[in-house]
């Protein structure tokens, strides 16, 4: 199942070249993942209060084209199970007016308990069943 979050490029997200700065895409992707979790009933902040932290282990991004100020776009999120303790989010940024792929990403993560040991709480584990 694919989950989608809509965005619009704001002027201050762009660099001197007039395109979205590459670091801003990390923010778009993170926000989309958090919205996905929220929509599935996983409370990121509540987990953190319980000393369960969802952490990114690896991010791979392939930049295909550049977004510019005013572009409307959406981020698609597809959860994937990697292993018993790791999960991934395949994410794609699409420009809305033509559905052009602007960026493809794979973000791999896990969750750790208060001792820093990896484990998946039930609500996270259920996302990948």
From TrEMBL:
Gene3D superfamilies (UniProt xref): Hotdog Thioesterase
This protein's UniProt keywords: Hydrolase
A single MF term (Gene Ontology): fatty acyl-CoA hydrolase activity
CDD domains linked: 4HBT
InterPro entries in UniProt: 4-hydroxybenzoyl-CoA_TE, HotDog_dom_sf, YbgC/YbaW
Keyword Hydrolase attributed: yes
Origin superkingdom: Bacteria
PANTHER family in alphabetical order: 4-HYDROXYBENZOYL-COA THIOESTERASE FAMILY MEMBER, NOVEL THIOESTERASE SUPERFAMILY DOMAIN AND SAPOSIN A-TYPE DOMAIN CONTAINING PROTEIN (0610012H03RIK)
Family statement drawn from the similarity comment of this UniProt entry: Belongs to the 4-hydroxybenzoyl-CoA thioesterase family.
Designated name of the protein: Acyl-CoA thioester hydrolase
């Amino acid at each position: 199942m694919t989950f989608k979050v809509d965005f619009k490029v704001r002027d201050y997200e762009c660099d001197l070249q007039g395109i979205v700065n590459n670091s801003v895409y990390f923010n778009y992707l993170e926000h989309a993942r958090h919205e996905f979790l929220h929509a599935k009933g996983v409370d990121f902040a509540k987990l953190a209060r319980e000393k369960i932290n969802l952490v990114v282990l690896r991010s791979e991004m392939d930049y295909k084209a550049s977004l510019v100020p005013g572009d409307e776009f959406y981020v698609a999120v597809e959860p994937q199970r990697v292993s018993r303790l790791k999960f991934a989010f395949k994410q794609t940024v699409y420009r809305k007016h033509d559905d052009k792929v602007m960026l493809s990403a794979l973000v791999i993560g896990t969750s750790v308990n208060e001792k820093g040991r990896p484990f998946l709480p039930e609500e996270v584990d259920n996302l990948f069943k």
